[in-house]
Please model this.
Amino acid sequence: MKSTSTGLVFLKYLNQQKKNMIWLAIGIASIAITFTLFVIGGLNIKSLIAILGTVTGVIVAGLMAFWAGSLAKLTGFGSHEAQMLYFMDHTIDFRRLLFAGIIIGSLGAITDIGMSVASAAAEIKQACPDIRFKELTGGAFNVGRDVMGTMANTLILAYVGAAIPMLLLVMGYEIDWLKVVNMDIIATEFVRGIAGSIGLIAAVPVTAILSGYFMSDHS
Model:
């Protein structure tokens, strides 16, 4: 009974925060990013830069998910769990809940690229203490560009891998691809991949520029 009442309280809280659900997810993600990166990298400028770049990427991913999801008219009922949750509390805004989930889902990849770029910049600075802003920013950006390509690929393949049974069903029943693309569950996965990839793209230059500004020699 205790776990059930706790779950109902949480559902009521989500219902109260439905207009702010996306920003709530971004706030929770930011707290998680700050704690994780300070534990991993320590209390230093490298971790701070990685946090700022990652938070920027998460915000961009959230806004992109909201824009693309609204344009695609996603319902938020692309999974069986969401449909079951509807019968528990049909007042929840499932579209915003979907967008919040996309933000949390992209957090890992964006955190990875933010820390990778900041760490690469710190190593470049250690190897060449007198490096200037332009050179350090360019080096960090080049590292981020390479990592960005692999991480975006990781995001897309993760979603495709989870959808393999559904893709086999589509092929088996020979459903027209135009209908497939317009299915809510397929459109949801497209939005997940696009939002996460755009978040990665945004995090790279921000982290590189911050690294160049705070770590380089301005004299």
User: Anything to note?
Assistant: The CA atoms of residues 113 and 147 lie 7 Å apart. The longest helix spans residues 94-127.
